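Lay summary. Proteins are chains of building blocks that fold into shapes, and those shapes determine what they do. In this project we predict the shape from the chain. Here is one chain we studied, written as its sequence of building blocks.
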Amino acid sequence: MSDEQPRKIQSIVTSHQIIQELQRLDGAGASEVAQNLDIGRSTVYQYLSTLHSEGYVKKNETEYHIGLKYLDHGMYARNRHPILELARPSLDSLIEETGEIGWLTCEDNGKLVTLDVAVGERGINDKFRGRIGNREFMHAHAGGKAILATYPDETVSEIIDEYGLPEYTSETITDTEALFEELAEIRETGIAVNDEEAITGYRAVGAAVTQGEETIGSITIGGPKNRLTGTYFLEDLPDLLRGVINEIDLRGSVSSPWE
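And here is the predicted shape, written in a compact code that computers can read:
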């Protein structure tokens, strides 16, 4: 069997690039998108006009924005993911007990995707929360590393080859050997940590969520560095997560008392 990748349909690639640029710019005209992507303005205008007629972008005078039609596709994909039903009750209990903030995430094409967020009474500002649908590099997040630790080294290497190990902060792991060493530790403990590796001043603890033999995502709890300190960060939260994972395993088992 040939290892050659199938030929990409360039028009679909271009359409996605235009949509991504509209999101990055928080709306723009055809000229600005064309200049940023180095594509002819008339070509961009044709794409935007088609996307507008199909309901995927909306137009405000000369400026285009992503339309809500994408929400239907995104919510469909999100709601059919098994981690929501399986782990959301446990996430709610965890956040109610700690008052912190928690996430359900999964791996999608080598990126870490946020599927759900729960905010406790202690809360933190919006920059720590992210948003549902957000896509991040896996190696800088507790949930991402927890998932990677369940994958074969070959799969992890393929993700690294595709995306590299970009630096978020001075604490981000950017060395492949160091990452593999940490993944080996996570496999032993079942717990991954993010110690200011994604955002300065922020820490998190995460664990992989499995269903049978398949890793379906991760559950993470985090907060400000000044609050997640000492035994609370290194022992208490990891123990709480292990208990949550056990609960999720029971909920997903054939003989589960919840069924």
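What the prediction tells us: The CA atoms of residues 83 and 98 lie 21 Å apart.
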